[in-house]
Write a structure and sequence with these properties.
Layout lengths: L2 H10 L17 H99 L1
GO molecular function: tropomyosin binding; troponin C binding; troponin I binding
Function: Troponin T is the tropomyosin-binding subunit of troponin, the thin filament regulatory complex which confers calcium-sensitivity to striated muscle actomyosin ATPase activity.
GO cellular component, one term: troponin complex
Amino acid sequence: MSDTEEATYESTFVPGLAPPKIPDGEKVDFDDIHRKRMEKDLTELHTLIEAHFEKRKKEEEELIVLTDRIEKRRSERAEQMKIRAERERERQAKLAVNQICFFPTIRKRKQEKRKRKLRRKQMMMQGRR
């Protein structure tokens, strides 16, 4: 290993964990040290599991809120589309009624307009002679 690799490993060491103290002159009980380490790991694992499930519960609640919002928006949109379609049907019905009722009037107006145009042409032709 080079010096830079060793420095990298030293900088990534977590200083929060203190090594267990070994009493001077007494017998070292490795089983006790191992048991304490296992208990510590177990409590850490429990806290991680609890944090995970709390986070998951929050995410599920957010997902439920989001799906409710989406469903509400869909229903509002469907209602809007229904209203627009109804208005369009009413508009088309009015147009149809207007065309049926006023069709003779429109035809008559067009005929009168053609007659006026023809008269103007005739007047202009007579004025040139």
